[in-house]
Design a protein that fits this description.
The protein is of the alpha+beta class. 30% of the residues lie in helices and 33% in strands. Strands 1-2-3-4-6-5 form a six-stranded antiparallel beta sheet.
Length: 121
């Protein structure tokens, strides 16, 4: 499967633009500011690498959320439920070709879940 074939993005993807080795993906899902959720994906052989490039945590901080070690640990636990992880400030995930559709859906859900913490913290 090639990441370049647009019919493989799925109905939850509004747009995908190639930027260097990555695709900037705009979803049909909205964050707490009613902006489209975006993330980046890169194909590395038979693996897909997902990242939000730190945008989700940056948005939380801009809303006044203090990202203490305890809060980061809670975010990491939440991400684990979606098979994603926190690397520095970036939410990340990876998948095989076969797992791509499910991982993409879970990554979007993970981003939405963490984004929704702005109301709870």
């Amino acid at each position: 499967m090639s990441i370049q074939r647009s019919n493989e993005w799925g109905k939850d993807i509004a747009d995908a633009e190639k930027i260097g080795n990555y695709y900037e993906v705009s979803t049909t899902a909205l964050d707490h500011n009613n902006d489209f959720i975006q993330f980046y994906i890169r194909q590395d052989g038979n693996r897909f690498l997902f990242s939000d490039d730190g945008d989700t945590l940056s948005a939380l901080e801009s809303e006044g959320v203090f990202l203490s070690q305890k809060v980061r640990e809670g975010i990491a636990e939440t991400l684990h439920q979606y098979d994603a992880k926190l690397e520095g400030d970036a939410l990340t995930a990876e998948s095989s070709v076969a797992e791509y559709p499910q991982t993409k859906k879970k990554f979007i859900q993970a981003m939405m879940k963490v984004d929704g913490l702005s109301d709870k913290l």
